[in-house]
Amino acid sequence: MNVLVCVKRVPATAGKITLTADEQAIDTRYLGFTVSPHEECAVEEAVRIVEAQGGSSTVLTLGPEEATDQLREAMAVGIERAILLQTDGGEWSAVDTATAIADAVRAREAIEGPFDLILLGNEAADSGEYQVGIRVAVALDRPVVTGIKGLEVRDDAIVARREAAGGGWEVYELPRPAVVGVREGINLPRYPSVPGRLRARKKEVERIVPSRPSGAPTMIRLRVPVEQDSAVEILGEGPAAAPRVVEVLRRLGLIA
Amino acid sequence: MILVVVEHEGGAPERLSVEALALGREIAGTVGEPLQAVAWGPASAGISGPLAASGVAVLHVIEDPRLTDHAPEALGKALAQLIARDRPTAVIGTASDRSTEILAHATARTGLALTANCTEVRPGEPWQITRQRWGGSLLEEARLDGPIRCLTVAPHAMEPAVVPAGATVVVQPFTPELADRDLRVRITSRVPAEAGKISLADARVVVGGGRGVGSAEGFAELDELAALLGGTVGVSRVVTSAGWRPHAQQVGQTGTRIAPDLYIACGISGAIQHMVGARSAKAILAINTDRDAPMVTRATYAVIGDLHTVVPAIIEAVRAER
Ligand SMILES: Cc1cc2nc3c(=O)[nH]c(=O)nc-3n(C[C@H](O)[C@H](O)[C@H](O)COP(=O)(O)OP(=O)(O)OC[C@H]3O[C@@H](n4cnc5c(N)ncnc54)[C@H](O)[C@@H]3O)c2cc1C
Ligand SMILES: Nc1ncnc2c1ncn2[C@@H]1O[C@H](COP(=O)(O)O)[C@@H](O)[C@H]1O
Question: What is the ipTM of this complex?
Fold first, then answer.
């Protein structure tokens, strides 16, 4: 079972988003970087599948040189190999990203044989386009499902579960090779061990420079949504505030 | 023509589809073109009545006897064929899993772009949109290029608009050309929902716990308060990552979006990825040791203090009321 997992480097925003002066990007001067929780779960799923069934695991990202940090984080939890589709750091559209990923997959498969499974996050944390996985699958003519929170690999098929809109689960069966977009909750990712981190630091990252996108960028500017200021009413400090909490509960009709 | 992808259940369009139709109608009015809809499934023709109230002129119904249950690739291919035949000015879907995947399949097959989670569309030269990033904590303004503009609408960005129903909706069957292979991905079975559980998304009261709760055992008090108020427990990602609680209880960008009358957030700092999931709460009561935590400054009410003494005191006070 050969598994490829795709991750995207994004700023680890926490309390508040600050934009650059030209409103074209998030000001990342004081921020760390990470990948989407969905993608962390995709990485964990790839590691588990290869642990259980043998084969190889590879992580791929399209991004700047610094995105090797995210590749190494994936290798620190057990992914064996890494590919960087190196860019100058600017934004790539979903169409261009998917084209570059599909091209890299084709090139790699021509040499080493097919990936039985390509895992992606359901959506990227930052741009949230909800489509790169499907575009990659269409380009490679492979079956795909997204939104997956349960995965079982059989000899002939991939069985994938997605939460149904009204509760319960929808079960899909896909012939292999397949593409799957996963959601956080499919598993509980492990933390990297210290030896894992050390091993990952020494591993090589294969670099490929994808052909530049042709289309003009469509983004005009970013904007932080206006927040309604809430004039917070401090009910008190410590347990002494309990009677005022009860008043609020009564006012909201939550207790008789 | 403006084409809206409509999902329906029990003879009526889903709420999100009604919102997408409202946007479609607004755009159709601005550009002076008719509004059309596309749906699938055996009961599709039955929704033509409610669609008239959304101003739809024509309903295309995708028909193929093999489409007995949801099959994203086949439906995406069918939509691609309809788009290629009729060349709509814009194609609009909801941000549901199904609409999104069908539009992604259709646009990937027609060489079109797809813009997800729009909150506003401004037709003109060029067309412009506003869309959500980071689950809605950041907005992007962008151009919508191309001859056929494809997008999904963010949930609750539009009020469902009802128009005086005049003309009737013309129902037109659309038979796509599908090979058996196009149906290789479809639902093969279902697992029913667990009965009797209060769903986090629908709960009237959510008692939230974050890192400040400190341990899995620490949640006993929160469970008790939630039960007392007829609500349920929600948590931050720190809590699910630590394995204290299952991911099904996570509130936020990669968890569940909640809309309770009251969200009691205990020991949660209020990171943007958490807050986008709690944005629709009507009121927030923050219990936190840090007066300056974003959760406190954005709350309606706050108690400053250790949740492990405050929550038991609230439980006792509520009990004393009964
Ligand atoms: C792409 C992405 C997606 C994410 N999605 C989600 C998501 O869906 N949901 C989510 O929750 N997070 C999400 N996160 C993580 C998020 O950024 C924060 O890390 C997380 O929400 C913080 O959880 P917390 O508030 O419990 O912990 P902290 O930020 O550590 O806050 C703990 C709070 O508890 C208070 N406290 C401590 N002790 C006590 C006490 N005894 N009594 C009272 N108060 C106390 C502290 O003052 C502090 O305010 C995401 C992150 C990324 C990058
Ligand atoms: N730049 C990228 N590099 C590698 N994978 C990506 C990149 N962008 C998106 N993906 C993958 O595609 C998934 C869906 O992204 P999107 O369609 O942009 O929301 C993400 O969760 C990633 O797994």
Answer: 0.96
